[in-house]
Amino acid sequence: MRPDEIDSALSALAGEHRLRRRATLQSPQGPRVTIDGRDYLAFASNDYLGLANHPALRQAMQQAIGDWGVGGGSSALVAGHFGIQQQAEEALAEFVGCEAALLFGSGYAANLGVITSLVGRGDAVFADRLNHASLNDGCLLSRATFKRFRHNDLAQLEQLLRDTPARTRLIAVDAVYSMDGDEAPLRELLQLAERYDAWLYLDDAHGFGLLGDGHGALLEYALHHPRVVYMATLGKAAGVAGAFVAGSRQLIDWLVNSARTYIFTTAHPPAQAAAILRSLQLIDADKWRRHLINEHISALHAGLRATSLSLCSSRSPIQPIIIGSNKQVLKLAEQLRARGIWVPAIRPPTVPAGSARLRVSLSAGHTRDDVAELLAALLSVIS
Ligand SMILES: *Cc1c(COP(=O)(O)O)cnc(C)c1O
């Protein structure tokens, strides 16, 4: 992109209904938000358990700022690994049933750092076509041979594994797909990883806090195994920020010594770790949050059953309504906004061309009435 080309590139995006603009929130994250001066009932965030603005998390973080200050001040390996972070890593490891865990600044950073630590030139990575962009970027950055298989197509994956000459192999998948809400066949993937001597890298950004009674996909599918590397983000259901990787003690020691997105970055604010610790307690204790989401999912499916809008098969809080055209999805999102409801229109390149969608994201922060209000608005915009 040359300086004189940006203008026409932006115009081209606008012409394809793909120009992104950020809505500005003037309130905390939650089911009801103020955006650009207007109040909305929102089905847009990944705050699935409704914890992002929970009083207990606010209090934990405020108190921890008193104890630990604000800035990390240094990279973790120099002088930026704090006691509260060590405590959070130990709690996270135990929470998902692994020997050890390592906190990263974000899920994006974790995916880049871990994949490039495990595979390099001459190795091979195998990735589901619907994987999150950060996994793809990690695979590309690793310089390993990068093979993508059709979504959840185990036969194609097996063919690719059978054909590879690479000595070190890594299969990378989302546990729950971020734009579809469906799940990877994890037990079958682990069998393939064993048969073909590969790592299984599991990105549980959308399963942590929900699957496995909140403890994530490893617990849900009993996947503890030396070949499995587990990553979950802490800015979605956990309501805070950051991410962690869990596995064997050796694996974590290796990442501390090799993951460039861990080594060459300033430690995140230590107070964040205190909020993460508090969040783990709530994820564990507040089982009603997961029950309420399940009720919301049932209500949404029941309410749309006899309409022209169809949902995907998803038991996660991610409930996309596939519309197809970019223009049509923008129009529907706009009509919902006019009724005070915020549902994001997701377009390419986030999703494949021709599969633009309303990504309804349900949360334990929503009440039954909120979901009824969404249904009424959806029915009125399609009638
Ligand atoms: C959100 C997300 C990430 C990135 O996590 P951040 O902490 O937001 O950087 C990685 N993988 C998946 C599947 C995600 O949905």
Radius of gyration: 21 Å
> What fold name goes in the CATH topology slot of the largest domain?
Aspartate Aminotransferase, domain 2
Structural class: alpha/beta
Number of strands: 13
Strand order of the largest sheet: 3-9-8-7-6-4-5
**Tally of distinct domains:** 2
Q: Class of the largest domain, according to the CATH hierarchy?
A: Alpha Beta
Biggest pleated sheet: 7 strands, mixed
Number of helices: 15
What's the rounded overall pLDDT mean? Answer: 97
Shape: globular
Termini separation comes to 44 Å
Percent in strands: 15-25%
Overall CATH architecture of the largest domain: 3-Layer(aba) Sandwich
CATH superfamily of the largest domain: Type I PLP-dependent aspartate aminotransferase-like (Major domain)
Instruction: Write out the distinct hetero groups bound to the structure.
Output: pyridoxal-5'-phosphate
Low-confidence stretches: none
List the helices and strands in order. Answer: HEEHHHEHEHEHEHEHEEHHHHEHEEEH
* Helix percentage: 40-55%
Layout of strands and helices, then pairs:
Elements (H helix, E strand, L loop, with lengths): L5 H10 L16 E4 L2 E5 L12 H14 L7 H4 L3 H14 L3 E5 L2 H12 L5 E5 L4 H10 L2 E5 L4 H10 L5 E6 L11 H10 L2 E6 L13 H4 L7 E6 L9 E5 L1 H10 L1 H4 L6 H16 L1 H18 L13 E7 L1 H13 L2 E2 L2 E2 L9 E6 L6 H15 L1
Parallel strand pairs: 2-11, 4-5, 4-6, 6-7, 7-8
Antiparallel strand pairs: 1-2, 3-9, 8-9, 10-13, 12-13
Bound molecules: pyridoxal-5'-phosphate.
List its traits.
383 residues, alpha/beta, Aspartate Aminotransferase, domain 1, Aspartate Aminotransferase, domain 2, 7-stranded mixed sheet, 3-stranded mixed sheet, 15 helices, 13 strands, 43% helix, binds pyridoxal-5'-phosphate
